[in-house]
Amino acid sequence: MKKKLGLLIVSLMLTLTASAQFEEEKVYVAGSLTGLDLNYNGNNGFSFGVQAKAGYFFDDAWMMLGQVAYNHSGNETVPDYIAVGAGLRYYIEQNGLYVGVNATLVHTYRNYNDLMPGIELGYAFFVSRTVTIEPSVYYNQSFKSHTKYSTAGFKIGIGIYI
């Protein structure tokens, strides 16, 4: 019983701490790793990617995001790419759970360009007052080739709320 009560108190404290961070006019910066064989599309084997994000809360639960990314594919028929994008993120009930939408322009050195809208569901787990670990699942839809380049995956990142 004591363990359950202690867990309830810790959960409540984490929820209250998290809600204080999602405020209007806060700034967000983050980096994340994608891939690591935890994504799938019809053309890749192993892939590894990194992302950098910056955001701004224009309302207590809404954030505008900008991102840049690099992805390396182990498959020689799929070139490495760079990407830039923008999106929105909504924090549900101020508890750290969020849903996001974005649009990303992907470019490879082989002059392949693709506009990829995407969705994301994640959780901002606070490890301190301003630093989070953010696991999320995502889906990006390719307009060029749905079967080859549309991607579903998992990523984990570290975010800072200033």
Query: What CATH architecture do you see?
Result: Beta Barrel
Q: So what's the oligomer here?
A: single chain
CATH level-1 class: Mainly Beta
From the alpha carbons, calculate the radius of gyration and give it in angstroms. 17 Å
Low-confidence spans: 12-20
Annotation, overall tally of beta strands: 9
Question: What is CATH's topology name?
Answer: Porin
Q: What's the number of helices? A: 2
What is the approximate shape? elongated
Overall structural domain count: 1
- Residues in helix, %: 10-25%
Keywords: Signal
Protein name: Outer membrane protein with beta-barrel domain
Organism: Hoylesella shahii DSM 15611 = JCM 12083
Domain Outer membrane protein beta-barrel: 8-159
Kindly describe this structure.
By secondary structure, the chain is mostly beta strands. It has one domain: Porin (Beta Barrel). 14% of the residues lie in helices and 58% in strands. The chain contains two helices and nine strands, in the order αββββββββαβ. The protein has helices at 2-19, 146-149, and strands at 27-40, 47-57, 62-73, 81-91, 97-108, 113-123, 125-126, 131-140, 151-161. Strands 1-2-3-4-5-6-8-9 form an eight-stranded antiparallel beta barrel. A hairpin with a 4-residue loop joins strand 7 (125-126) and strand 8. The protein starts with a helix and ends with a strand. Residues 12-20 have low confidence and may be disordered. Pfam families: OMP_b-brl. Residues 8-159 form the Outer membrane protein beta-barrel domain. Keywords: Signal.
